[in-house]
Amino acid sequence: MTAVPPALDLAGLDDLFTADELAIRDSVRELCRRRIDPYVADWFERGEVDDIRGLARELGSLGLLGMHLQGYGCAGTSCVDYGLACLELEASDSGVRSLVSVQGSLAMYAIWRFGSEEHKQHWLPQMAAGEAIGCFGLTEPDHGSDPGSMRTRARRDGADWVLTGRKMWITNGSIADVAVVWAQTDEGIRGFVVPTSADGFSAPLIKHKMSLRASVTSELVLDEVRLPADAMLPEVRGLKGPLSCLSEARYGIVWGSLGAARSSLASALTYSIEREQFGKPIAGFQLTQQKLAEMYLEYSKGLLLAVHLGRRKDAGTVTPEQISLGKLNNIRAALEICRTARTILGANGISLEFPVIRHMNNLESVLTYEGTVEMHTLVIGQALTGLPAFR
């Protein structure tokens, strides 16, 4: 990750945060500087993260896993604290932020919000410490934006449940100890806590990715996986369960995408001052300054929106539509910042010696997951007009 030039607080946005919030931000930034930044370009190039379980334990030791949840070994920080952590993690790499988001905002949140007390006591302390890794099985090979049409099925067999189906594009799947899996039942869509050691469960690694290469992405295969009756999440039925989890994860993206944007902007700014053409730094040319100014404007506006949504979330007043607004705006702005930064670096912009092409490739995935541009556009459209246009 490129160091953050002081000029990137031109708008004075650090004034929006308390001393405690800035201390958390700085502690995450230091962890990233020490533990991730020296190695992440190599991880991305090889498509493999060295000692990912050790990294999870270090993230857990800093309280970053499920950090905005209360009790059960979780840090219980504010949503703004969590947002700042996501920003710093994604300034290192989207894949690392995805590890934390899926662990805390999807798998842990589902258990924390909808699980039995036994589920919580057994899994959450281990997951908060990074001793157990979780994944979240919702998306299927043929059903992404339309999860209500999922084919994964859970049927009763005596006192047990038997799960059959496939899930796709599952972060952490191949290294997970527990999977939260959503399935059709005779009583509607229900969630299940599935130990990955269960007979019939497998998680083949998805290879040949050109994005999120410093992240584990897998398929989940459930072949007559037999679970006890108490494996079902008791406190939710229907799509509101998985969709509420997705809203938690989208909130992290609102902040995290800005980390990738800031890293790319910082890299472009530093490069433009150091790179000379036609006898002077390219930062001294009007077209370069226009690019830098416009990138900074979009980054600043995105951060203002993230802080606003974070304060609303801490106050309990944020709505799913507002989270969609933040996700749609900030990921599109971040991707455009990365693309513009790439042009400033010229040919060097495609080299992994700089973070820009890595962030740009990663954000192509972030643009799609946790809701595509099209779906968030329609969520906002329905909120504005009162008319659903999904079908």
From TrEMBL:
<dbReference type="Pfam" id="PF02770">
    <property type="entry name" value="Acyl-CoA_dh_M"/>
</dbReference>
<dbReference type="InterPro" id="IPR013786">
    <property type="entry name" value="AcylCoA_DH/ox_N"/>
</dbReference>
<dbReference type="Pfam" id="PF00441">
    <property type="entry name" value="Acyl-CoA_dh_1"/>
</dbReference>
<feature type="domain" description="Acyl-CoA dehydrogenase/oxidase C-terminal">
    <location>
        <begin position="238"/>
        <end position="384"/>
    </location>
</feature>
<comment type="similarity">
    <text>Belongs to the acyl-CoA dehydrogenase family.</text>
</comment>
<keyword id="KW-0285">Flavoprotein</keyword>
<dbReference type="InterPro" id="IPR037069">
    <property type="entry name" value="AcylCoA_DH/ox_N_sf"/>
</dbReference>
<feature type="domain" description="Acyl-CoA oxidase/dehydrogenase middle">
    <location>
        <begin position="135"/>
        <end position="225"/>
    </location>
</feature>
<dbReference type="InterPro" id="IPR052033">
    <property type="entry name" value="Glutaryl-CoA_DH_mitochondrial"/>
</dbReference>
<keyword id="KW-0274">FAD</keyword>
<dbReference type="Pfam" id="PF02771">
    <property type="entry name" value="Acyl-CoA_dh_N"/>
</dbReference>
<dbReference type="InterPro" id="IPR046373">
    <property type="entry name" value="Acyl-CoA_Oxase/DH_mid-dom_sf"/>
</dbReference>
<keyword id="KW-0809">Transit peptide</keyword>
<feature type="domain" description="Acyl-CoA dehydrogenase/oxidase N-terminal">
    <location>
        <begin position="18"/>
        <end position="131"/>
    </location>
</feature>
<dbReference type="InterPro" id="IPR036250">
    <property type="entry name" value="AcylCo_DH-like_C"/>
</dbReference>
<dbReference type="InterPro" id="IPR009075">
    <property type="entry name" value="AcylCo_DH/oxidase_C"/>
</dbReference>
<dbReference type="InterPro" id="IPR006091">
    <property type="entry name" value="Acyl-CoA_Oxase/DH_mid-dom"/>
</dbReference>
<dbReference type="InterPro" id="IPR009100">
    <property type="entry name" value="AcylCoA_DH/oxidase_NM_dom_sf"/>
</dbReference>
<keyword id="KW-0560">Oxidoreductase</keyword>
<protein>
    <submittedName>
        <fullName>Acyl-CoA dehydrogenase family protein</fullName>
    </submittedName>
</protein>
